[in-house]
Amino acid sequence: MEFRKTALTCALATLFALGGTAAAQDWGGQQGGGAQDASPPEHQGAMPGADVDLSDDTIDEFVDAFVEVQKVNDEFAQRLENAADAEQAQALHQEAQQEMVEAVEATGMNVEEYNEVAMALQNDPELLDQVVQMAEERQ
Asked: In what residue span(s) does the DUF4168 domain sit (predicted)?
């Protein structure tokens, strides 16, 4: 498994989608909007990456979470390719998303924090390079 910026970008995009799903599960009932607006109330309209903790500890947790999410992504990629129909593919996708949430949470982060760090990394190419290097070392 080789981590490159393009792979990181794809994985980040995957988790953003996952974050929306997780947010819909977490906040959908509170907002009454469900999947229509999956962002948590306190971050609606917030600038992506604003006021995000990018301390060494946070980055370290993020890299651990990213590596675990990538493992889940890799595990399910082949299974999704071999899905018999759209219904099976959707079920596998939902299972993968749940495992990604669990992988992130097992590192001590929640999906919202993970996504905030990921968005902040897109605005900091030097830190993104550092994260990619750290992820490669932990694979």
From this structure: 55-131
